[in-house]
């Protein structure tokens, strides 16, 4: 009985029993602006990192293309934000996950942990306006993407399980 009481209290406090619907149709503008800021700042930050020393196998041209793509998504969101369907805005963090996966791949295995911080941005964005199921789905996709990219990279130092565990834990905390 005491465990059920504690579990019930936790469920109530963490809203596990309550359905959440995310954002409304009328909220499209602020959701699009938040996403535009994250995509735009992410692209600019990626470009700025190209001015710093990077891993020897970093592919700066491809990273610049990814950065420009992120900035283009940002500009698209800003230009069409009131006309964008809610379904697009709900799926937009998936675009971020794809761009982050490319970033990690092109940055090389030594820099994978640094650029994995962008995975937290994706889940943070999803957590701001999506319902619980979609937040957790985006979190799972980001972790799966990171695991896939780590598996594709050659020349790792054997710490990929640690990187993946820490990234997955960070993403899960943000999602919850």
Task: Summarize it.
The protein is mainly α and 176 residues long.
Number of strands: 0
Structural class: mainly alpha
DSSP strand content: under 5%
**How many H/I helical runs?**
8
Average pLDDT value? 88
Q: Roughly how many Å apart are the termini?
A: 26 Å
As a percent range, the share of helical residues equals over 70%
Please write the string of helix (H) and strand (E) elements: HHHHHHHH
Report on the architecture of this protein.
The chain has eight helices and no strands. The protein is an all-alpha fold. α6 runs antiparallel to α7 (132-152). The longest helix has 22 residues, at 28-49. The radius of gyration is 18 Å and the shape is flat.
List the helices and strands and how they pair.
Layout: H1 2-13, H2 28-49, H3 60-80, H4 86-107, H5 112-115, H6 117-129, H7 132-152, H8 160-175
Helix pairs in contact: 2-3, 2-4, 2-6, 3-4, 4-6, 4-7, 6-7, 6-8, 7-8
Label this structure with key terms.
0% strand; 8 helices; mainly alpha; single chain; 74% helix; 176 residues
